[in-house]
Design brief:
- The chain is built from 7 helices and 8 strands; from the N terminus they run βαββαββααβαβαβα.
- By secondary structure, the protein is of the alpha/beta class.
- Strands 1, 2, 3, 4, 5, 6, 7 and 8 form an 8-stranded mixed β-sheet that branches.
- The two termini are 24 Å apart.
Length: 207
């Protein structure tokens, strides 16, 4: 990756792998657009025991996100499994630590989107997406959901919402993404990449 090439940060937390699978589809959508890259990052779990410390680099999978990953992104996709209709605590913990970026307006006018996975069909997908939307609006980001020009939104019988891509993982969290869910996550990443490039060009012109 060249130093000045724009990238979309795909930031997620995943416990059983379903949200990670969605993140990878968004990455593919981002990277289908010339001129921009995806940067896949996760967050460490949180512990009720204050002394518990995870290693700085996970044993496998995506590396942990830093504030600089977020600061310098051209766009952001944020994903989490549902926890009682809300984003998971590890992701919220990371988001709660971004006040420094908020104070400096680092994310103002950058596009963002959200995605989620649940074990049941009515397990809080839309409220979880909204819970991730709220801090993005506080950061001054431009939220981009999924438009109904993606006809899979009308055809899906599992995941898929206008607020962002979603996935029905099943009660054992072992149901793979179906074709509609795969398409919608890819389309969401592609749309975010196009918007990131356009808004990045607009910001540069304004300098």
């Amino acid at each position: 990756m060249t130093e000045h090439r724009p990238y979309v940060l795909v930031l997620f937390y995943s416990r059983h792998g379903a949200t990670r699978a969605m993140a990878e589809r968004l990455v593919a959508g981002v990277e289908s657009c010339p001129g921009i890259e995806a940067r896949l990052r996760t967050v460490p779990p949180v512990s009720a025991t204050c002394e518990a410390v995870d290693p700085e680099i996970p044993d496998e999978g995506a590396v942990y996100a830093s504030l600089d990953d977020l600061r310098h992104c051209a766009g952001l996709a944020i994903g989490s499994p549902t926890r009682f209709g809300n984003m998971a605590a590890p992701l919220k913990y990371f988001v709660d630590g971004t006040s420094e970026l908020w104070l400096g307006g680092a994310l103002v006018d950058k596009p963002a989107t959200a995605f989620t996975s649940t074990s049941s069909l009515h397990g809080g997908q839309e409220t979880t997406l909204v819970s991730m939307l709220l801090p993005l609006l506080h950061h001054g980001m431009v939220y981009a959901g999924l438009p109904y020009s993606e006809i899979e939104l009308m055809e899906t019988n599992a995941g898929g919402t206008p607020y962002g891509a979603s996935h029905l993982a099943g009660k054992r969290s072992d149901r793979p993404l179906d074709e509609h869910e795969r398409h919608l996550a890819f389309a969401q990443g592609k749309r975010l990449a196009r918007l990131a490039l356009a808004l990045e060009a607009s910001r540069r012109e304004a300098l």
